[in-house]
Design a protein that fits this description.
This protein is an alpha+beta fold. Helices cover 39% and strands 29% of the residues. A hairpin with a 5-residue loop joins strand 1 and strand 2.
Amino acid sequence: MATLRELMQLPGAVAAGIYDDHGNLVAYAGDISEKAAEIAALMASANKAVANMQAKGWTEYTGKEGFFPVQGFAVAAGKYAACIAGNVGVFVELDKADFDKIWETIMP
């Protein structure tokens, strides 16, 4: 699992966090409040659960394997993206991010 230090060194990183399987914040770094980091941890956990539910449904619908479990995902809006894999995530500025480097770093 990537460390907060590794995540914060990624191009465009503005915040990073680690959360548990229940969406509780374990640790974070960056220029955000603890409350914002807690909300981000819940968001990451909830989206991971929804993505896995959809992947199971797609597996059942298509009869093909390989969709589940979800390995990682990204959500982008405005100037930022959140990239999540396992129980870690990093928020990056879109115009500065190197997504190949991000996924190399955060994939379990």
